[in-house]
Write a structure and sequence with these properties.
This protein is an alpha/beta fold and 242 residues long. Helices cover 36% and strands 14% of the residues. The strands form 2 sheets. A 4-stranded antiparallel sheet has the order 4-5-7-6. It is elongated and about 65 Å long.
């Protein structure tokens, strides 16, 4: 195996947002994990099945000897996500990309899945790239944060700075509504306004300015911002004018 196929699933693995649409509806969960293992490791089917049961047990799937022969629609949402994590970890990746891994889960199950991911990360020493809109998940899981807007990076900093000193005015109301990172009592935060732009490319103006409380006429509506270092972090330059 060469090229991307040798890396995808082995060095880099992905946890999808909705496991029900990620697993094949006509193949057992176990067969799909076994296939991934046999693709990247020199194991026969019996050995791959044993490893699949072992990894299902490791991620907290109850009765893995039975679950391995079940279809995805026979599992609860939490078990499906655990099975998806098992598939992602089956080849011991260096980087795990988790795309909204808890969006479709209830709060209790979400907490369990996040705790499981932290535990597995510590055990395996892998990096996790978490993609999410949930500031609670960011605060609980992340060490370094990259903020994106319409597909472009607009801010990058350690998680504490992202919440306590946001450089992007359109993010401040979101941070202020977060109890753990609230501003001082009585302080007034700027409010986002206007519609959210639908495109980022081929713009000569700043795409954020319709929603920015610190809009500067003649600048923000004519000049697209650029990312530049600010101390130990990065942020869009147009929001850093004195």
């Amino acid at each position: 195996m060469a090229g991307h196929a040798a890396i995808r699933g082995a060095e880099i693995a992905l946890i999808f947002q909705e496991p029900m649409s990620s697993f094949s509806p006509v193949h057992t969960v176990g067969n799909q994990i076994i296939e991934a293992i046999m693709l990247h490791q020199q194991l026969d089917r019996r050995q791959a099945r044993e490893k699949t049961i072992e990894i299902l047990r490791r991620v907290g799937v109850s009765s893995p000897e039975e679950r391995v022969d079940q279809l995805a629609n026979q599992l609860s949402g939490g078990l499906r996500q655990r099975a998806m994590i098992a598939m992602a970890l089956s080849c011991h990746p260096t980087l795990l990309i988790a795309d909204e891994p808890t969006t479709a889960l209830d709060v209790t199950t979400q907490t369990q899945i996040l705790a499981l991911m932290r535990h597995l990360q510590q055990e395996d020493g892998m990096a996790i790239m978490l993609i999410t809109h949930d500031l609670g998940v960011v605060a609980e899981m992340a060490e370094d944060v990259v903020v994106m807007y319409l597909g472009r990076v607009v801010e990058q900093a350690p998680v504490d700075e992202i919440f306590h000193a946001p450089r992007i005015p359109t993010r401040r109301p979101s941070c202020d509504r977060f109890p753990a990172f609230a501003r001082a009592p009585g302080s007034v935060s700027p409010q986002s306004r206007g519609p959210c732009p639908t495109r980022m490319t081929d713009r000569r103006d700043g795409p954020f300015h319709p929603r920015c409380a610190e809009f500067m006429a003649g600048t923000c509506d004519r000049q697209a911002p650029s990312l530049r270092p600010v101390g130990d972090r990065h942020a869009v330059s147009c929001f850093l004018y004195e």
